[in-house]
Each structure stands twice: as C-alpha cells, then as structure tokens.
Specification:
3-stranded antiparallel sheet, globular, single chain, mainly alpha, 2 domains, Cytochrome p450
C-alpha cells in the first residue's frame, strides 16, 4: 500500500494553501548549505535549525505521523514549539504551527516560499502543467492569471447561479427521497454528489456533465475514474520519500493504477474538449460558458492573454478544479451540518434566519442567501474549526459561548473573510499561493446549506444521549485528501416546508 498518512500529508504540502499549521519543503534534494562570505572558503555558514524530535535512521520522523497526520503534527508542535524540523524520509520539512509564524511565511516572506517542490504524481496525472503543483515562475503566473481573471472571477462564478440553485433543489429532493418513512440519511454521500454535480457542470457544461452524472454504465465508469484520480492525487509514492523502497510501488499495484487512471482520464478529457471544439458556443458574455469554453478561448487568443495554453494545459487546469473543488466543498458542508446538529441553539438560529428571509417561497435562491449573515458566520466558524484539507488545523480548538457569533457583531467582525488578510481565518491560505476558488466554493456551500436548513429539521440518527440531552453524533475524523467524518454523517431529516412533487 502507498503509505496513506504520508501520502495525504505531502499532497497538501504542494497542492493546498496552508494556514496556521504550515509545512514547507526546505530541501527537495541533497542541497548543501551556502558558503559563508569568509576569507576561509572551507568554513560554511551554518544557520541554526529549528528543534527536532528524535527520529529513526532512514525513516526520519515518518513513524510519528500516525493515522491522522494533522493531529500528530499539532501534538508535536505543542511538545516542541511553534516551529520544528522533521525529516520525512529523505525530505527535510519545517512545521510552522502558530498564526504569527504563518503570517511571517505567507505575507512577510511570501515570495521566498512561493515555490513548490517537484511531485512525481503531479507530473504523471496532471501533465506536469497544472497550477497547484507548478513551480513558481512565468508559466505559473500566467496560468494562475487565467484562473483568477477568467475562470473564477466574480462575474463568471455568478454566471453559475442557475447551476447552484438547480443542484441545491436536486439535493433537497434526494434528501426527501432517502428520508421517507423516517429513515436516516447518509448526508455525506449526498453532499459529495452535490459538489460533484456543481463542479462538473461548471467545468464541462450541462451537455457533457449529463453523461458524467448519469446512471448509465458509462456515467458510473467516468465518475469512478474521477474518484480514483482524487484518491491518487492524495497519494505520495513510497519511492518519492524512500528511494531505496521504490520497488514497493510496483509490487502493491500503485504504478499500474496510476497508468490506468491517467489513460482513462486523458480519454475522457480528450472527448470533452473535442465535443466543445465542434459545437457552437455562446458569445463572450454568454451565461453558458463553462471552464472548457473559457480555456479554449484563451487557447485561441494566446497572444492577447500572454500565454500559450496547449491542450494538455487545458486538461491539467480542469483537473485542478476537480481536485481542489469537489472534496473540499463537500467536506466544508459536511462539518457545518455536523456542528449545527451538535449545537442545537445555533441550528435553530440558522434555521430561523433562512426561514424568515425566504418566507413564503417554495425554495431558497441566491438572493435569499445574500441576506443570511448568521449562516455566513456559521460557515466561517466551521472552516476555522475544520479547515477542508488535512493540515489546515486551527491554532486553537477552544470553544467559547460566543464561538458562533465571533464573525457577527459589527462591520469589523463581519468583514473577517477568506481572502488571506485575517490570519485567524485562513482556510484558503494567503499570499501568492492562496486558492483562487474562494467565491466558487463559498457560494456553492452556502446555497446547499441554506436549502437544507430551510426544508428540513435535523437531528443525529443515533438515539443515545451524550449527557446533555441531545442525540449523539460520531465526529471521528477520517483521513483523506480532505478530512471527512468517519461515520458518513447519518442524520434524520424531518420535512418542514412541503416539497414540490
């Protein structure tokens, strides 16, 4: 097997914007320290290194990561201080675990830490040309500009309003179907379906996404390919950390799975791109322009946009959208619902708000969502406590009576946002490597949460009591590219607003 804890750890290092628990590769290979400016050239400048726990020969500190690396690293930080040095096999790694140090890295010294080490998995699955894993340089700057200015601009994200509203209505219908007769709903799976549908329709358009999301064998096969891709992106081959054990990846079948998944992915993306090239597209201001449409326009106008965007680069950027979007959006919604179920007063306040704003409506729309200040505070608090990716662990897990109101109570509190200016809340990172998909993720999560709270009353499926008079809910974490709830979030949903047939 592919050393799952280590795999997920290293994926986040290079793929995700990091917050108060920030790991950075300092040395990707056997680099020697720089020589000191000294008349004696044999003397080298030896800079002081951060403290380091005792490691093992060859393995270094890999054995300390455990099944939940982000928790293990938080524990190590408490024991050894806010900055420490680990050796993950052959890779020296610095762990930064305080908001002040994270601000130093991501703001004051942003440029120095903007690079990314080489990733064998990104080379093989993402054509070596995506944005998240790309080294800092001209290609990364131009490709990121395409994402920020064209794919994920506020205007383009707003054009997917219809997609979000339709998929939120479909989510409500699935919950109503699955909860008939008082049955518990496995909400985690339904939230993942919603996130996949929103991202697929935004990326590929309605026509291409229809086949991908359909129930025929071809649709199921395509969804499995994308699921396998997301799992592999969260895997680091053993040989990348321990070259002398590189043969393990072949023996365990990882090499074969990488090859088969890439071939299937490439075929899927080729078909989608060919279909888009053949069909007539909306004008530049059309509301039906999906990500592939936009990237093909950039490809056709490369001189105007300053980048030669080839077909493989279009494929890589689209895969970035899937890797960064689906799992993280679903996880944020999952933890928000779990926290609300375990905090009934907050649940009631959020429901009262959305039911007052959308009173008399058959469903929630984005005009309603724009008025839901308390729901927005709930989402911020959820992301503070449960950042989507494994190493985005908040510096403090303290819960206070005002925990759900910390983002309310005036303009200053409400203005605390996700854009990397407030280091008490950094689920999307900060600086040059900050995630450009903030508006897309935020809008998708808020629309679904508002719909679920409007249409249903919720409680944990377990009938046992936790000692406080509320049903208990298993909040155990399950490691992955994003940290999910291990139980699958079984909840009882009781309809509140009569649903359309």
């Amino acid at each position: 097997m592919a050393l799952e804890p280590v795999a997920l750890l290293l994926t986040v290092l290079v793929a995700a914007p990091l917050t108060v628990l920030l790991l950075l590769f300092l040395v990707a290979g056997n680099k020697r320290p720089a020589r000191a400016a000294s008349p004696t050239p044999r003397h080298r400048l030896r800079l002081p290194l951060p403290p380091s726990p005792r490691g093992l020969p060859l393995l270094g500190h890999l054995h300390l990561l455990g099944s939940l690396p982000h928790r293990a690293l938080a524990s190590l930080a408490r024991a050894h201080g806010p900055v420490l040095l680990l050796r993950l096999g052959r890779v020296p790694t610095v762990v930064v675990s305080s908001a002040a140090a994270a601000e130093e890295v991501m703001r004051a010294r942003d440029l120095a830490f903007a690079n990314r080490p080489a990733s064998a998995m990104a080379e093989r699955l993402l054509y070596g040309r995506d944005v998240a894993f790309a080294p800092y340089g001209e290609y990364w700057r131009q490709a990121r500009r395409v994402c920020v200015v064209h794919l994920l601009s506020a205007r383009h994200v707003g054009s997917f309003r219809r997609v979000r509203e339709q998929e939120a209505a479909a989510l409500v219908a699935r919950v109503a179907r699955d909860s008939a007769g008082g049955a518990a709903v496995g909400l985690s799976d339904l939230l993942t379906e919603y996130a996949n549908a929103v991202v697929s329709r935004a990326a590929f358009g309605d026509e291409s996404a229809r086949g991908l999301l359909g129930e025929f064998d071809s649709g199921r096969r395509q969804r499995k390919v994308l699921t396998d891709f997301q799992k592999l992106v969260g895997t680091t081959p053993v040989g990348e950390l321990l070259p002398w054990l590189g043969w393990v990846d072949a023996v365990t079948g990882l090499e074969g799975k990488i090859r088969r998944t890439f071939e299937a992915l490439d075929g899927l993306l080729e078909k989608v791109i060919d279909d888009h090239r053949r069909r007539p597209r909306s004008g530049e201001d059309g509301g039906d322009r999906d990500f592939v449409d936009v990237l093909l326009d950039v490809h056709n106008k490369d001189q105007e946009h300053g980048i030669q965007l080839e077909t493989n680069e279009i494929k890589a950027i689209i895969l970035d959208m899937f890797a960064a979007g689906t799992d993280t959006i679903a996880t944020a919604m999952e933890w928000a619902m779990a926290e609300l179920v375990t905090h009934p007063r907050a649940m009631r306040r959020a429901q009262d708000e959305v039911r007052a704003v959308a009173a008399g409506s058959t469903g929630v729309n984005e005009d309603h969502v724009a008025q839901l200040d308390y729901l927005k505070a709930v989402l911020k608090e959820t992301l503070r406590l449960h950042a989507p990716l494994p190493l985005l662990v908040p510096g403090s897990r303290r819960r206070t009576p005002r925990s759900w109101e910390r983002f309310l109570g005036g303009a200053a509190a409400a203005d605390v946002g996700f854009k990397g200016q407030h280091f008490e809340l950094l689920p999307f990172g900060a600086g040059r490597r900050m995630c450009p998909g903030i508006a897309f993720a935020e809008g998708s999560a808020e629309m679904a949460l508002a719909s679920l709270l409007y249409h249903f009353d919720w409680e944990a499926a377990s009938r046992g009591q936790n000692g406080k008079g509320t049903p208990s809910l298993d909040m155990t974490e399950m490691n992955g590219l994003a940290v999910h709830i291990n139980s699958g979030l079984p909840l009882v949903a009781k309809p509140w607003i009569p649903l359309k047939n």
